[in-house]
Design goal:
- The protein has 678 residues and is an alpha/beta fold.
- The chain has 5 domains: 2-51, no CATH class; 73-292, Rossmann fold; 298-365, no CATH class; 390-545, no CATH class; 554-677, no CATH class.
- The protein is 47% helix and 9% strand.
- The protein has a 7-stranded mixed sheet with strand order 2-1-9-3-8-6-4. It has a 3-stranded antiparallel sheet with strand order 10-12-11. A 3-stranded parallel sheet has the order 13-14-15, with no helix packed on it.
- Helix 2 runs antiparallel to helix 3.
- The two termini are 55 Å apart.
Length: 678
Amino acid sequence: LSRLELLRAQEAAQVQAVSPLPQQVRVLVDVLAGEGQPHLSQSLQNFMDTSSSQLHIPVHGGSPARGGCTDPMVQKHLESLQSSCGNGLETGALQRLTNLLLVEGLTDIQQKEHDILQVETTKGLPNVSKSIPLEKLFLPLSKVSIPPRISVTVGVAGIGKSTLVKLFVRSWAKGEINRDILFVLPLTFRELNTHEKLSAERLVCSVFPHLPEPGCASARTLLILDGLDEFKTPLDFSNTVVCTDPKKEIQVDSLITNIIRGNLLQEASVWVTSRPVAARQIPSGLVDRMTEIRGFRDAEMKDFLDQMFLDNRDLSSQVLQHIRANRSLHILCTIPGFCQISASSIAYFLRHSRDPSQEEPVVPRTMTEIYSYYFKMSLSGDWLEKPRETLRAEQAVNTSKKLVGSLGRLAFYGLLRRRHVFYEQDMKVYGIDPSLLHSILSTHLLLKEDTQTSTAYCFSHLTIQEFLAALYYHTAARRAIFDLFTESGMSWPKLGLLSHFRGAVQRALQAEEQHLDIFIRFLSGLLAPRVNRLLSGWLLVKDEHVGLRSQAVSALQGCLSAGPAVTSRAVNAMRCLHELQHTDTAKAVEEAMRRESLAGMLTPVNCAALAYLLQVSDVCLEETNLSNCLTYNVCKNLLPQLLFCHNLRLDNNQFKDDVMELLGSVLSRKDCQIQRLR
């Protein structure tokens, strides 16, 4: 018998309420010994001895999920789970989460790119055809397979990973799904951040304190670890010291790697949720099942907005119409978190566009404009659910400026360290008094969460942190004389906003990861005339962009010809130019595409513009026509971007065998979305 077969027998014994597995195996040991099979008998005995050293979860009177548990403490825990995981779960918005995409590991773009860039490049459409219902997430895929021990669910920031966990735990606690799982232990990495050392036993007891000392009987247990991307310490599977003692306290990152490797809690199933970039820390060979949360489809986006503007369906329709009119915005709004921010900002604009006291309204078209409206709305207290608060906008700005500056500094240096969760000690370091965080900021910019051991704070969405970081950098750069990226202040002198802007662009280009790409996009947008009009008198100086914008454009255009291949960073530089309202290059290339006259004009800069248009232009919506305009080198340089064109025309380019070999390699890649190629 294999260890997995014994595990199956163990689970069957518990589900059918028969005698515990240890007793069954001991009977089998005696039988085998009596039939002349001493070696197999000894192997089983060794297995029993090893298993007895592991931490087991005792069973009291049957399955809690089935309501057969008589222990009042466990029943109290189940009620607590239902209560804590039921808050804020809207039934209509959760249908999307009941089916997950079944994927075969992370794609290249998921491992390397920023979440926003992933969605923009793939146009919000994962290249996956298989799905799995939530209730079957931890079941075997076939009769001959076994349940997964390590499951990983990935999704970009704001897609609903924590909501999915709450939905699962609540459904399980009610006995609606996965009745074969007898204990569910939900944990977040936010909670784990507050510990330096833990043992496996303390880890379990921190979630399920009602458990008595480990006994001889064990039950199938699911340990949930939500939000790997929020863990303060990177997981190192190569150099972790092996630990098999469940009572020994070790560093928390070592504890997690030992659990995932199966050295600790080996009989428990483990479910990890994470943003894709962080999920790459777990070696693919240790992952038994990987799933992905998909974004909104059009009908789901409409339902989401109708729910958001429940009392004003006309406003919901207008917001949706505006989103659909902007292809780039429409793609990003497949992320629920981004959709909520965008819809709030657009609704704010629509409600104030006819206000005679306002200047000529600026329709939000870029990310920076949308977040400027959102930020302006958050400070003034002019929210949809609170149409007019007594505090005037000017007073709100005056009382909140210092606090917002401190939050921006926290956001900026947190972004540099790849930190997105903060604690009371962090607040003190950056001069933030948590008691001053009034309801507006707490609800819409900064979220507060009380864990068992401390209070955690995080920005309501990753992009909120990035926007605040850019706002802080832009404001601080006006008077800073040293490099702001060096928090100690020791660096070569750097004077002037433009000098700091160039330095930030270079930092983003040189960074091994893409965590600064959206920060640079917002930083560029803050130099745009429309954004200056929006925020002048609030947090920007009126007309300060004059004289700087053209030089910022030149700095960004220098990124477009940095190398022969059109990289995602070159495309992001084009998006930065769009935020700056410099669209001349993109418009010229788009017009040439319409006239089918691209031949001879695909310089490195125009190639970057073309790659950008492949993602955002309506010209490429139905078909990407690149016939009679590509050379071998241009085709080679554009290949990373051509992957995501669904209907691609490359005829009349007089290609030779070398190009065919390139195209063959592209078509065989896991993340290729080409469906029709001519």
